[in-house]
Amino acid sequence: MDAIVRLTDLHKRFDALHVLKGVSLAVQPREVICLIGRSGSGKSTLLRSINFLEEPDAGAVEVDGIVVTPELDTRTRRQRIREIRLRTGMVFQEFNLFPHKSVIDNVIEALLVVKRLPKPQALEIAENFLRKVGLIDKRDEYPSRLSGGQKQRVAIARALAMEPKVMLFDEPTSALDPELIGEVIKVMEDLANDGMTMLVVTHEMSFARDAADRVIFMEDGIFVEEGTPDEIFTAPRDPRTQQFLQRHIRG
Amino acid sequence: MSFRYQLALVWAAIFACIIAFLSLIRLDLGFIGEWWGFIVYGAGNPDAWTVGIVATLYISLASILLAILLAFLGALGRLSKHPIAYGVATFYVSLVRGTPLLIQIFILFFGLPQINQQLNRVFPGFEQQFPFISSLLVLPALPTGILALGINYGAYMTEVFRAGIQSVGRGQIEAATALGMTPGQTLWRIVLPQAVRVVIPPIGNDFIAMTKDSALVSVIGVQELLWRSQKVGVQNFRSMETLLIAAAFYWIMTIVLQAVQSQIEKRLARSDR
Ligand SMILES: Nc1ncnc2c1ncn2[C@@H]1O[C@H](COP(=O)(O)OP(=O)(O)OP(=O)(O)O)[C@@H](O)[C@H]1O
Ligand SMILES: [Mg+2]
Predict the structure, then answer these.
(1) Residues with Cβ < 8 Å from B67, sequence gap 6 or more?
(2) Could you say which of B17, B180, B227, B263 would form a disulfide bridge with B218 (CB–CB 3.0 to 4.6 Å)?
(3) How confident is the model at residue A215 (pLDDT cuts 50, 70, 90)?
C-alpha cells in the first residue's frame, strides 16, 4: 500500500541546536502511530514539520502524494504547503481555540474562509462533528466557559471538520486535569477505530498500548526504536528505550 | 457626612475661590455672556458653524482616524521580520516621539510648500505637470493640522497596537495556520478582532487627549476653539475672558467624552468572554 505520509531524511536546526537529525518515516493509511520520548527529543518539531509550522532544513515531506522539499521554488513550495495543510489536521496541547468565537464558530471558521463553503453547509458539517465529540449541546458556548477536556474535544472537531487525511496530535492530554483525560482519549480511540490515520505524540502509555499500530521511541532527534506496542512495551531492545519506559510506566 | 457629600462641598469651595479670584481681577462677565457663542460655535454666523468646538471635534476625529491607520501599519512594521518594514516603522516611531508636536506642525506647514518651491525650481513646470502632487505639498492649514496630529499620535499608538496584536497568543495563529488560513486571513479574522478589544480603551484616552492637543494647530491659523478665543480676545483686549471660555469648553468636552468612554468600556467588559 502507498504511504499517506512519507518523511525522508528530515533535518531541522534551531541555530546551533540540531533537533531533527535525519528522520525517515512512512505512515500507511489508517495507521495509528504513537511517538514517545523524553522532553526535548524533537517529537513536536517532527510533527510540526509535517504541516510546516516548522520548516525543515533538509529532507522531503510527502502527504497524500504532495511532495515538498526545501529546494522547490518559493511559489510552488507555498502552494504545496497549502495543499498539505488542507490534508492534515492538528491538535495542540494548549487547545488553541479562538476565544472570541463561539464553539460552532470555531468549527466553521476554516470551512468558510479556507474551503469557502456556504454557511448552511458549513454549519451542518460542524454540527455533525460536534455531535461526534459529544458537544453539540455546547454549540453556542464560548471557549472560556468550557472545561479543558471539552475545549480539546472542540479543537478535535474543528480539525476533523476540514476532513483531513491525517490527524496530528501533539500531547493532546498533557494540559488536562487527570480526571478529564479519559474523555479526550475516548474520542481519539473512536477516531482510530473509524480508520483515521493518526500520528500522536503522547505520554499516555495506556493509549499507545491500546490504540497504536506502531510505537516509535525518539531520542536526540532520531528514531531509536520502533515496533508494535507489544514489542516496545514488553520487550524493548535498546537500553535507552528500556530506561525511558521504566521511568514512565512506573509513574 | 458621606464621602460624596464632602466631595461636593470641596468642589463647591474651589469654585467659589475661583469666582472670587476672577472678580478680583475684574473679569468682564458681560463680555463672556456676549461672546461665548460666537467663539465656541460661530453663533450669529450661520455659514460658520464648522468652527470652534465643532472644528476641534472633527479635527480630532479625522486625526485619530489617520493615527489609527498609521499605528496599524506601524505595528505591522514593528512586528515584521522584513528589514525595510521594520526599519521604516522604528524610524517613524523614534523620530516622531523624539520631537515636539509643535515643531512637527510648523515643519509640515512651512516645510512642505518649500519642497514644492524647490521642485519647481529644479523641474520647471512641475506645478503644471503634477498639479495633484503640488497641491498635496501646499495644503491649507486645516489638513496640515490634521496631518500633523495624525502622524504624531500614530507614532505613540504604534506601540499600543503592537501590544494589542501581540496579546493574541502564538498558539492561535498556529492553529489558524494549521487549518489552512493564510497570514492575511489569520490577521483579519483571528488577531485583529481580539486586538481591537485591547486597543479601544487606549484609543479612547488618546482621542480625549487629542481634543486638547488639537489646540496647538491654532498656531497655523486653523479656526478651532483656541484660535477663535485668541482672535476675539486680542481684538477686544479681553484675552483672559476668551481664554477662560475656551478652557471651560475643553473641560466640558473632556468630561462628556470621558463619560461616553466609560460607557463603551463597560459594554466591552460585559461582552468579554
Ligand atoms: N522555535 C524554537 N526555537 C529554538 N529552539 C527550539 C524551538 N522549538 C523547539 N526548540 C528546541 O528544540 C528541541 C526539541 O524541541 P521539541 O519541542 O521538538 O521537543 P519535544 O520532544 O516535543 O519535547 P516536549 O516533550 O517537551 O514537548 C528542544 O531543545 C527545544 O528547546
Ligand atoms: Mg513537544
Answers:
(1) B149, B150, B151, B152, B153, B154, B157, B206, B210
(2) B227
(3) very high
Strand order in the sheet with A58-63: A17-27, A5-14, A58-63, A66-68
Mean pLDDT of all residues in A156-163? 97
φ, ψ of residue B41 to 5 degrees: the values are -140, 25
Distance between CA atoms of residues B70 and B245, nearest Å? 34
Ligand 1 centroid to residue A46 C-alpha, Å: 10
Q: Above pLDDT 70, what percent of chain A?
A: 99
| Chain A residues within 8 A of B180 when measuring between CB atoms | 82, 85-86, 110, 114, 162
Q: Most distant CA pair in chain A: distance in Å?
A: 55
CB B157 within 8 A of CB B165: no
| Residues around ligand 2, an ion, CB closer than 5 A | A 44
Closest CA to A223 of A234, A215, A231, A213: A215
Q: Which three cell numbers stand for residue A73?
A: 521554488
Alpha-carbon dihedral sign for residues B43, B44, B50, B52: negative
CB contact burial B192-216 (16+ within 10 A = b; e otherwise): bebbebbbebbbbebbbebbbbbbb
pLDDT at residue A137, as a whole number: 96
> What is the residue type of B102?
L
Across residues A83-106, what is the average pLDDT? 96
**Residue B104 to residues A120, B59, B217, B224: CA-CA distances in angstroms?**
54, 16, 10, 18
Ligand 2 centre to CA of B174 (Å) is: 14
> Which protein residue has the closest C-alpha to ligand 1 atom 4?
A14
Task: Among B172, B193, B273, select the one facing A96 at the smallest CB separation.
Answer: B172
Contact yes or no for A162/A110 (Cβ under 8 A) = yes
Residues A114-147 have pLDDT tens digits of 999 999 999 999 999 999 999 999 999 999 999 9
The Cβ of residue B3 has, within 10 Å, a number of other Cβ atoms equal to: 7
Q: Whose CA is nearest to atom 24 of ligand 1?
A: A39
